[in-house]
Amino acid sequence: MQVPGAKLSYSNITFLDKNPIKRWLQRKRLISAIKILGTSDCAKRICDFGAGNGELCKGLAEKFPAAKIICYEPTPSLLLEARENLREFGERIEFCSDAKDLENQTFDIILCLEVFEHLPKIETISALKIISEILHNEGKFVIGVPVEVGIPAVYKGLFRMIRRYGAFDANIKNVFLALIGYPPVDRPVSEISPGLSFYFEHMGFNHKILAHEFLKYFKLVGVSTSPFGKPISFLMPEINYLLINTTKVKDI
After folding, report:
1. 11-146+206-245 CATH fold
2. CB 58 within 8 A of CB 86
3. Helices and strands (H and E) in the chain: how many
4. pTM strictly above 0.70
5. Are 40 and 28 in contact (CB under 8 A)?
6. How big is the CA angle at 228 (ends 224 and 230), to the nearest 5 degrees?
7. Closest by Cα among 28, 110, 100 to 69
8. Which of 13, 171, 202, 208 gives the lowest tally of CB atoms within 10 Å of its CB?
9. What is the pLDDT of residues 89-100, one digit of tens each?
10. Using an 8 Å Cβ cutoff, are 212 and 127 in contact?
11. Which of 113, 189, 116, 181 is nearest to 152 (CA)?
12. Largest CA distance in the chain
């Protein structure tokens, strides 16, 4: 994301970060998210919900060459990055900046990666409701979020301390609280663009609490971690959930 007042683009702090391990992890999380979908050869319409710079759409276009892909990104600076990043795909990928434009559409697959850890509760519920309404009957929904509690909180905290010691997500107290499963709940909230409330720091996010919310709308059918799975999944920095729409599907 584009942090207010910063010169670094989303690409610069993710896929083009100066740290080669971080760059590799960012690539792997996209691969893992697409992999959990399995074979979905019949997918005709796919939405990357909160697409950032659109990098995931490249993998989706390769995996599903016959599908129409919608790149939904409500933040103007990020949408601009996505348009530039995806120029080569032409009409294969459509761009959308307003969730209202999705209301009359339905999708076979929706992916939402590295988004929910940034959303306050009201915005989280709103996004889940929108997705439940536009997801096709028996369609697939992938949520990918970082693991910010337990052991991953420690090595992530140390990495952040090296870069910005003492910040909200890079101080010993908050890292310790995240380690024992009680990350700070009083998270600094800002706006990523006018009217869009946003947590810029991952610190304070708990994927287990998110699960309580999305299980009200969807049925969980699969879980994977990135970059590796069992038997060391508890050490992994990223988790993907594969869901289906329980508001439309009674029996699986």
Report:
1. Rossmann fold (3.40.50)
2. yes
3. 7, 9
4. yes
5. no
6. 70
7. 110
8. 208
9. 999 999 999 999
10. no
11. 181
12. 50
Structure tokens at 12: 């610069």
Q: Which residues face 240 on adjacent strands?
A: 144, 224
Q: How far apart are CA 78 and CA 4, in angstroms?
A: 12
Residue 40 CB: number of other CB atoms within 10 A?
15
Structure tokens at 189: 């909230």
Task: Judge contact between 60 and 85, C-beta under 8 A.
Answer: no
Alpha helices (H) along 135-171: 151-164
Number of other CB atoms surrounding residue 81 within 10 Å: 22
pLDDT in tens, the chain (252 residues): 444 434 457 877 898 889 999 999 999 999 999 999 988 778 999 999 999 999 999 999 999 999 999 999 999 999 999 999 999 999 999 999 999 999 889 999 999 999 999 999 999 999 999 999 999 988 999 999 999 999 999 999 999 999 999 999 999 999 999 999 999 999 999 998 888 999 999 999 999 999 999 999 999 999 999 999 999 999 999 999 999 997 754 443
pLDDT tens per residue, range 17-73? 899 999 999 999 999 999 999 887 789 999 999 999 999 999 999 999 999 999 999
Block residue for tokens 């939405």? 47
Q: Which residue has the tokens 């959303």?
A: 119
Which parts of 147-245 are beta strand (E)? 190-193, 196-198, 218-226, 238-245
Instruction: Count Cα neighbours of 203 within 13 Å in the Cβ-side half-sphere.
Output: 27
